[in-house]
């Protein structure tokens, strides 16, 4: 790799103006000795929805993009427009990284690995007998895959779309059947399931600046529960604030954001980044945002 090497990348999603992904990638590119230009392609700003993905992909190819990161609400909608899926993306039915190379569009999923790495570092030794997960969409499927890989014995899914929860649970049970009895089920009584759980994992947009609030009544939280988020803007959501007030162990969404980006960077550039450096930069970006708001 030489200093004259350039990469053009983009992030496709809705309401992503405050994302830390672009500066994180660009800084690591500088540190690695090449120029990396990372553009934000915000569907809200463009006034379009996921139906615009075919045209956006064509435009990205014409302009010489090396790849795209994909976030809400496009992680599943983009799949029909790709030429190939990595084994992880195919198994999960969700894509967050698209490599554009040689006229082909190859979809990957780095979310599940990102969550797994974050969890191992942020909640070491957390009990994994019974967990409740809120959200079974694209990000939720990846997180559930990570949790089962980490050794969760029972995973209880809740989603605003019950059929989506059922489909995700069935797919996970099929994928992990080598472990014996089904380990994933759909919640029928959230209060009862949370009361019996070791941990709660939140995988919906609720808690973002655009979608304020909590994904469940905070009265359902209890001291023996650990709580993990995937939302990272703000880093402390209303859910995490309530959990910390009770004395729960918590994990914010920052680690997942960093580690999914670490693997995406490698896929885009062929260079393995320094994950500790990217983590430090992510934290610095957060400090800057707080200072700007002060």
TrEMBL record:
<comment type="subunit">
    <text>Homodimer.</text>
</comment>
<dbReference type="GO" id="GO:0005829">
    <property type="term" value="C:cytosol"/>
</dbReference>
<feature type="domain" description="SDH C-terminal">
    <location>
        <begin position="255"/>
        <end position="280"/>
    </location>
</feature>
<feature type="binding site">
    <location>
        <begin position="19"/>
        <end position="21"/>
    </location>
    <ligand>
        <name>shikimate</name>
    </ligand>
</feature>
<comment type="similarity">
    <text>Belongs to the shikimate dehydrogenase family.</text>
</comment>
<comment type="pathway">
    <text>Metabolic intermediate biosynthesis; chorismate biosynthesis; chorismate from D-erythrose 4-phosphate and phosphoenolpyruvate: step 4/7.</text>
</comment>
<feature type="binding site">
    <location>
        <position position="230"/>
    </location>
    <ligand>
        <name>NADP(+)</name>
    </ligand>
</feature>
<keyword id="KW-0560">Oxidoreductase</keyword>
<feature type="binding site">
    <location>
        <position position="260"/>
    </location>
    <ligand>
        <name>shikimate</name>
    </ligand>
</feature>
<comment type="pathway">
    <text>Aromatic compound metabolism; 3,4-dihydroxybenzoate biosynthesis; 3-dehydroquinate from D-quinate (NAD(+) route).</text>
</comment>
<dbReference type="InterPro" id="IPR036291">
    <property type="entry name" value="NAD(P)-bd_dom_sf"/>
</dbReference>
<keyword id="KW-0028">Amino-acid biosynthesis</keyword>
<dbReference type="GO" id="GO:0004764">
    <property type="term" value="F:shikimate 3-dehydrogenase (NADP+) activity"/>
</dbReference>
<keyword id="KW-0521">NADP</keyword>
<dbReference type="InterPro" id="IPR022893">
    <property type="entry name" value="Shikimate_DH_fam"/>
</dbReference>
<feature type="binding site">
    <location>
        <begin position="135"/>
        <end position="139"/>
    </location>
    <ligand>
        <name>NADP(+)</name>
    </ligand>
</feature>
<dbReference type="GO" id="GO:0009073">
    <property type="term" value="P:aromatic amino acid family biosynthetic process"/>
</dbReference>
<feature type="binding site">
    <location>
        <position position="96"/>
    </location>
    <ligand>
        <name>shikimate</name>
    </ligand>
</feature>
<dbReference type="InterPro" id="IPR013708">
    <property type="entry name" value="Shikimate_DH-bd_N"/>
</dbReference>
<feature type="domain" description="Shikimate dehydrogenase substrate binding N-terminal">
    <location>
        <begin position="11"/>
        <end position="98"/>
    </location>
</feature>
<dbReference type="GO" id="GO:0009423">
    <property type="term" value="P:chorismate biosynthetic process"/>
</dbReference>
<dbReference type="GO" id="GO:0050661">
    <property type="term" value="F:NADP binding"/>
</dbReference>
<comment type="function">
    <text>Involved in the biosynthesis of the chorismate, which leads to the biosynthesis of aromatic amino acids. Catalyzes the reversible NADPH linked reduction of 3-dehydroshikimate (DHSA) to yield shikimate (SA).</text>
</comment>
<dbReference type="InterPro" id="IPR046346">
    <property type="entry name" value="Aminoacid_DH-like_N_sf"/>
</dbReference>
<dbReference type="Pfam" id="PF18317">
    <property type="entry name" value="SDH_C"/>
</dbReference>
<feature type="binding site">
    <location>
        <position position="111"/>
    </location>
    <ligand>
        <name>shikimate</name>
    </ligand>
</feature>
<keyword id="KW-0057">Aromatic amino acid biosynthesis</keyword>
<feature type="binding site">
    <location>
        <position position="232"/>
    </location>
    <ligand>
        <name>shikimate</name>
    </ligand>
</feature>
<feature type="binding site">
    <location>
        <position position="253"/>
    </location>
    <ligand>
        <name>NADP(+)</name>
    </ligand>
</feature>
<dbReference type="Pfam" id="PF08501">
    <property type="entry name" value="Shikimate_dh_N"/>
</dbReference>
<feature type="active site" description="Proton acceptor">
    <location>
        <position position="75"/>
    </location>
</feature>
<protein>
    <recommendedName>
        <fullName>Shikimate dehydrogenase (NADP(+))</fullName>
        <ecNumber>1.1.1.25</ecNumber>
    </recommendedName>
</protein>
<dbReference type="GO" id="GO:0008652">
    <property type="term" value="P:amino acid biosynthetic process"/>
</dbReference>
<dbReference type="InterPro" id="IPR041121">
    <property type="entry name" value="SDH_C"/>
</dbReference>
<dbReference type="GO" id="GO:0019632">
    <property type="term" value="P:shikimate metabolic process"/>
</dbReference>
<feature type="binding site">
    <location>
        <position position="71"/>
    </location>
    <ligand>
        <name>shikimate</name>
    </ligand>
</feature>
